[in-house]
Amino acid sequence: MRWRLLMGVGFAGLGAVALIGPARLIAQIEGDRGIPPVVSTGNIEVSGVEVNTTGRTAAEARAAGWKQAWHTAWAQTHGPALDDATIESLVSAVVVEAEEIGPHRYHARLRVEFDRQRAGQFVAGQNGAVIARSAPMLVIPVLYSGGVAQVFEVRGSWQRAWAEYRMGTSAIDYVRPSGSGGDSLLLTAGQPGRRSRIWWRNILDQFGAADVVMPMARLERQWPGGPIHGTFTARYGPDNTFLESFTMDAPDEAALPAMLAQAIARIDQIYTGALAQGLLRPDASLTLEHPGSADPGIAGLIALGRQQQANEQAAAALAAAQGAAAAFAPPPTQAAEAKPTAKAGEGLLTIQFASGDARAVDAALAGVKSVPGTSGVATTSIAIGGTSVMRASFAGTSADLAAQLRARGWQVSVSGTVLRIKR
Questions:
Q1: Which of 20, 251, 337, 389 is 20 to 30 A removed from 234 (C-alpha atoms)?
Q2: pLDDT tens digits along 194-224
Q3: What is the pLDDT of residues 236-275, one digit of tens each?
Q4: What is the largest CA-CA distance in the chain?
Q5: Could you give the angle at the alpha carbon of 226 between the alpha carbons of 151 and 164, nearest 5°?
Q6: Whether residue 252 sits in one domain with residue 148
Q7: DSSP string, 129-195
Q8: Can you give the pTM of this predicted structure?
Q9: Domain match, 120 and 140 both
């Protein structure tokens, strides 16, 4: 009976796939849903500069408004007092956020961008702040609207706001996915609830990020086309850690983009403050390949494991060297016959020498045998590529043998009855 139930479930699944069709499955990653983020130039930007000027003509009023915007924006960067020509030379762009042009009046809200290469000598950063830049942070903008949570499933207003927000002067190095292709499958509203570090590391590696931030927005519309109440929360890290939350309101749909842009600017300030406090730094469990940034206990375990691995490798190398030495050693019977013994009036000395190859072994043996008064010279340990050992009987002291070897061009160091020689 049980196997019939399993077969029924299997056929039902196949029927569902056949009914839905592969086109529905492909549609999960296709579609017009990706919004590429704007290019962050790194210029010093000042947004929301209000101007209201007059002139004999509309063009004259507009020129006066832009000149006024340059000075107002420069004052907001806390830069030093400069003349008009110098300030104008620092301006790289003026972006119109909103404007009203009359025959003799110009009223606008502008964004002024100063070239960082030229203006950097006067100001350290936006608003004069000097803040270290964060590690790359993956952005997952989660939107709750109409009882539904979404990220990249559709082209949402929250995703669009993050894609259009200019972050060149932010202290946070945001990594903003476009939302196209497989992004909508990997980065969903359920992803912040995951705790698996392996899963998180796989995702962060795909986007070249070190950690993650989750700015969340909950939009509540009072009625269609009416006021919109927004609740915004800044979260970060694989544990979905809470930082701060605030609310904002928009009178209608037309004012929603401006509200979202202001909300992102405030969230950026929250993340910047967290970075300054040392909170917004990569989770140690996500970067275990860099033990210096991990917990001391974790780093100690990693160091212990690596030390044990190094010891095992050294033991294997020693075993290989001993095997190579055995291959060059004389037969046991010959070694027994060549084993040195001290004669009457002679001392038995140990001599260590570098043995890079078989020729070095022969040269060392010949050099010691050439010294008058030596006898019974034979190797006791050979390590090709390392240090080998020989024993010799000598009618004299170790200092006398060292002097004889030095006279033959050897470098000798003496420690008791042990000599170490090399060319």
A1: 251
A2: 888 888 888 888 888 889 999 999 999 988 8
A3: 999 999 999 999 999 998 999 999 999 999 999 999 999 8
A4: 124
A5: 35
A6: yes
A7: ---PPPPEEEE--EEEETTEEESSSS--HHHHHHHH---TT-SSEEE-----TTHHHHS-TTGGG--
A8: 0.52
A9: no
- Residues 360 and 383: their CA atoms lie apart, in Å, by 11
Alpha-carbon span 174 to 152, nearest angstrom: 17
Domains identified in the chain, total number = 3
Residue 351 domain-assigned (yes or no): yes
User: With b meaning 16 or more CB within 10 Å and e meaning fewer, what string describes 157-172?
Assistant: bbbebbbebbbebbbb
Please enumerate in sequence order all residues whose Cβ is within 8 A of that of 279, keeping only pairs 6 or more positions apart, or say none.
236, 243
- Distance CA(268)–CA(17), nearest Å, equals 44
Contact assessment for residue 226 and residue 219, using Cβ atoms and an 8 Å cutoff: no
CA atoms of 167 and 268, how far apart (whole Å): 9
Is residue 81 a part of any domain in this protein?
yes
Name the residue range of residue 236's domain: 131-282
DSSP 423: -
The pLDDT value given to residue 318: 67
Query: Within a domain: residue 311?
Result: no
Q: For 301-313, what is each residue's pLDDT tens digit?
A: 556 666 666 667 6
What string of DSSP letters covers 310-340? HHHHHHHHHHHHHHHHHHHSPPHHHHHHH--
Q: Judge if 107 and 164 occupy the same domain.
A: no
